[in-house]
Amino acid sequence: MTTLTFSNILDCAKYITKYLGAVKMSDKKTVPAAVAMLKVLEAWGVKDVYGYPGGSVNSTMNALDLEKERINYIQVRHEQVGAIAAAAHAKLTGQIGVTFGSAGPGAVNLLNGLYDAREDHAPVLALVGQVPHTNMNYNYFQEFPEVPMFQDVAVYDRIVMTPESLPHVVDKAIREAYKHRGVAVVVIPNDFGYVEIPDVDYASNTVLDKPQPQPQATNEEVEKFLEMVKAAKRPVFHVGSGIKGNADKLIALSRKLQIPVTITGLAKGSVSDDYEANLGTINRAASKSADEIFATADLVIALGADFPFANLVYRTHDFKFIQIDNDRSQFGRHHYLDLGIWSDSGSFLDKALELSQPAEESSFFKAAIAANKDWQAYLQGLMAKTEGQLEYEPVYREINRIAEKDAIFSIDVGDNIINSFRFLNLTKENKWTISALFATMGYGIPGAIAAKRAYPNRQVFNIAGDGAFSMVMQDLLTEVKYQLPIINVVTSNKSLNFIKSEQDDVEMNLSGIFLQEADFAKVAEGLGVEGIRVDKLEDLPQAFDRALEVTKQGRPVLIDVHISDKRGLPVEELELEIVDGKFVEKISAGYQKTHGQQSVREFLDSYEGYNLKTLPEYFEEFGVRA
Ligand SMILES: Cc1ncc(C[n+]2csc(CCOP(=O)(O)OP(=O)(O)O)c2C)c(N)n1
Ligand SMILES: [Mg+2]
Q1: What residues are paired with 432 via a beta bridge?
Q2: 48-51 and 97-101 as β-strands: parallel, antiparallel, unpaired?
Q3: What's the gap in Å between 525 CA and the centre of ligand 1?
Q4: H or E segment to which residue 537 belongs
Q5: What's the longest Cα–Cα distance across the chain?
Q6: Which helix (H) or strand (E) holds 183?
Q7: Which of 4, 77, 157, 622 has the fewest CB atoms inside 10 Å of its own CB, making it the most exposed?
């Protein structure tokens, strides 16, 4: 006779529960765990999943096939392209981007795009394959501990432990990605994805449909801000991506308080280029008027801005610093604070408009607008050229000419970043996406693919240098496969020109920056994309006309423009200081060391800026005192 012990009873109870559970479960519908996972994505509104197959993601591939009526698998030709497309999707739409790759090499290839997402605060979910759990820890083929690989890049990074928990973990991952505006990684042992689990609603999206409450500025904080503006002689806004849909309010406040606006790269397009006191970006990829005006500011108001070059540009001279941000952890990140306001930009601007009196006309504000007009005229002049060597500026003239009002631009890293800041004419109806803080080459094509998938009725451009384009050019095939009529513009200057300019300013020989010339129009043709090569300035307009025709027929097109490797005016070399109560402008010592002693006039003239005036000339004209 067996004695009934406490532990037997427990075992018995467990058995009964399990047995009854099984009976109960058998009545219920089941689905493969990977299908349950995709249903979670669908519930969160995910339409496209960018990725690349591999043995360790076959259960996900199986589910993508089973669910193909409800979710699209977009087959890219490199995991990096899929991950960047997911990041670009998130940056363009504000909605989570989803990518996947297989164990080992596929996972590693994802990292580039995931870092881009992390740096630009884009919510992205990465599903990473793993060998079947029964083979884990046996040094199995392509088995690596994946979680540690993603530890640095991810805000949430987990391996799934049971088939039943797969949809739950993915749901949680999405919430974490949204909450932290970052990358969530879920590693999935392949066998789990095939296991049948109960077909229930695992998604928690409904509770998050409401927008998150945003911090609001208080009256007291805004009064303090207004006091500081009043006390300042030369206040300047520095506006970042936090401005989002509030640019009209910013412009109204800028006019009312007579404060010129400078922006970070991510705010390009949010604040219309048409606004006369939007001076553009500061630092290297910049506008002359923005750099000069910023260099004279005695009060900088950073609004929703995370400026990666602050350690350079915020340190050139002393100024008072106000920071307005909706993320408390960002305060003091780039400069010590004279005033910090924890607020959403919209709430701050509303309150500032409500509590402020219009400022008197300011000579500083007028001088800033005049200097900006002068700079804009210089840029227009360069773009308008119809004779001489083929250079990059008329390429932008043509892009502006054929661009529709709400066109979307994906810009690759290199000189095109500087040039699109300067030459692309954007209003808030446009969208513009770049790899801003991570600044990875190879962003143009995936960004354009994501844009065209998310906004199929809008015109989409990919603008890339020859170096950046050749890192991801195989994905022209993806444009063809999914019939994405993207206008691809390649600026072939046979050089990694952005880096050449850097080497130019250092006492060294140019090293490793010249590129083997290629005929990318022919490459495009081979991949099924109509390719147009342009070698002469006069042939540009017809190439862009043809690009319009081709894309209107629903096909992608590529224009490979063979331009010179000329350098644009390096505005960052201009320096301003106060001497005897007056602003004096000069060229940096470093530039003079490598390019010879020169006056500001000689410097501007050497970049065809014959009509450009210096800021001190404008200050003189409008009576601005130091
Ligand atoms: C993946 C990656 N590798 C290297 C760099 C460094 N880098 C930044 S710009 C640039 C040159 C880009 O050359 P290209 O695409 O030809 O454009 P260009 O500046 O010539 O117009 C390089 C090498 C980078 N940002 N990303
Ligand atoms: Mg190049």
Answers
A1: 409
A2: parallel
A3: 24
A4: none
A5: 109
A6: strand 183-189
A7: 4
495 Cβ below 6 A of ligand 1: yes
Determine what percent of the chain is predicted with pLDDT higher than 70. Answer: 95
Q: Closest by alpha carbon to 535, among 473, 488, 568, 493? A: 493
**Cβ-Cβ contacts under 8 Å for 371 (sequence gap 6 or more):** 279, 288, 289, 292, 293, 613, 615, 618
Which position has the token pair 């308080």? 257
* pLDDT attached to residue 470: 98
**Which helix (H) or strand (E) covers residue 216, if one does?**
none
- Is 465's C-beta closer than 6 angstroms to any atom of ligand 1? yes
Considering the domain 219-373 in this protein, what is its CATH number? Answer: 3.40.50.1220
Q: How far is CA 569 from CA 285, 604, 606, in A?
A: 10, 8, 9
Residue 455's alpha-carbon distances to 61, 194, 450, in angstroms, are 25, 33, 8
- Whether 337 is in the pocket of ligand 1, judged by its Cβ within 6 Å, is no
Phi-psi region of 554 (alpha: psi -120 to 50; beta: other; left: phi over 0): left
| CATH 3.40.50.1220 domain locations along the chain | 219-373
CB under 8 Å to 539, separation ≥6 — which residues?
Answer: none
What is the average per-residue pLDDT within 452-475?
98
Return the H-helix or E-strand segment holding 236: strand 235-239
Average pLDDT, the chain: 94
Average pLDDT estimate for 171-185 = 96
Beta-carbon-side half-sphere exposure of residue 116 (alpha carbons within 13 Å): 33
Q: What is the pLDDT of residue 23?
A: 42
Amino acid at 91: K
What is the C-alpha to C-alpha distance for residues 580 and 577, in angstroms, rounded to an integer?
Answer: 10
Task: Please tell me if the CB atom of residue 302 comes closer than 6 angstroms to any atom of ligand 1.
Answer: no
pLDDT tens digits for 608-622? 999 999 999 999 999
Residue 14 has a pLDDT of 45
Predicted confidence band of residue 9 (pLDDT cuts 50, 70, 90): very low
* pTM above threshold 0.90: yes
With contact defined as beta carbons under 8 Å apart, do 76 and 100 qualify? Answer: no
* Residue in 441, 470, 500 to alter for ligand 1 test, most ligand atoms within 8 A of Cβ: 441
Contact 474, 78 (CB under 8 A): yes
Task: Please identify, in words, the CATH class of the domain defined by 390-562.
Answer: alpha beta
- Residue 308 corresponds to which tokens in the numbers above? 């990666």
In order of 423, 570, 588, the CA distances from 603 in angstroms are: 21, 9, 11
Which residues form the catalytic set? 79, 141-142, 284, 413, 498-499, 502
572 CA from centroid of ligand 1 (Å) = 19
Average pLDDT over residues 572-587: 94
- Within the chain, all domains assigned CATH 3.40.50.970 are found at 31-198, 390-562
The strand order across the sheet containing 154-159 reads 72-75, 48-51, 97-101, 124-130, 183-189, 154-159
Tell me the sheet residues that pair with 433. 410
Does 496 sit in the ligand 1 pocket, CB within 6 Å? Answer: yes
What confidence tier does 212 reach under pLDDT thresholds 50, 70, 90? confident
Alpha helices per DSSP H over 54-191: 58-66, 79-93, 105-119, 146-150, 166-180
Output the CATH code of domain 31-198: 3.40.50.970
- DSSP-assigned states of every residue in 553-602: TT--EEEEEE---PPPP-GGGEEEEEETTEEEEEE-HHHHHHH-S--HHH
